[in-house]
Amino acid sequence: MKIPTPRQLPSGSWFIQMRLGGQSVPVTERTKADCVKTAQLLKAQYMAERERPKGRNTQRTVGELVDDYIKKYAPVLSPATIRGYETIRRNRFQSVMGLYPTKVTSWQKVINDELRAVSEKTVANAWGLVSAALRDAKISVPEVKLAAVPETDLPFLEPEEIPLFLEAVRGDPCELEILLELHGLRNSEARKVVKGNQIDLKHRVINVQGAIVRGSEGFVEKKTNKSKKSARQVQILIPRLEDLAREYARRGEAPPMHGPTMILDHVHQACERAGVTDVSNHDLRRTFASLGYSCGISERVLMEMGGWSDPGTVHRVYLKLAQRDKKGAVAALRAFYAPQDDATRIREALEVLEGLCERYGDLEALHPVLHEAEKILNANVAKR
Hints:
The protein has 384 residues and is mostly helical. It is built from 15 helices and 8 strands.
């Protein structure tokens, strides 16, 4: 959809001046990408209103309102977003999709009934689409109370688990895609890298440009990434990834591309073989963040390396790890200042072990935990 080129204002904001139907429409946003997106949405809305036949019966059912909303904004939505909207349209709030909005006596009851079948997050997403469709049609959106979406503790591999996982995945048909995701790539980005042969062996970088996402009618190749920051160059960090890419290049073969379901199954199988935390392929992206924390990389630098535009994801991982490390640190400091009778030593050891066990998280790490605890206690005695 063609719109004017945005320009940056002295304030740092981005600005587009459009004319729609003879009217001047200014658009100002904090980022260039947001400015373009807002302008596209406004133009799509104007085009849809202009193309609507005059004299048409404007009374539409809830389902028709949702259908019209999806069709109206399809030009500026990603195929994956459209697919998600269509899934909601087919499966959620089916008791009212055939009714006119004025005939829905209690939206709260509709939401409560839906909560008996699916999760709070699913209902919140579905209501988000329906309320947006109502609002877009200039229909008053009723006040409802949604159940709080519980905060899930999303898993990732601990740094000491990564070597075990790498060994378990070695030789797997999906190994190349899995290693790309351990470099912080999204599944859709890894598919595009494999299909587009975007591993630059000369400069030892992965060129993350574009994505392959699942749409309503299969996979769709996108020239753009999820956000402006997602287009990036990632240095090859895992030697095995470079070895695999060189082997394919030597044989003159294109690496095979696998579907997300197959990759997910193989990630679970590798976790089971390695005896590590069970993660999904998307959790490997969070594993990249956890490793960044352990290596002392700042949140801002890691966001650039992983192509995150929202600092919340990286911050949540860093905060969780920092809070966990704090427990072990507090125990070590208490041990330094505590009197050295036998009972106190036992308590110190238990506190130190508790903090370290929580960090390592599995029984296989028992020996390094005991070794580190012994060093801390011996150091305390020596200092006295």
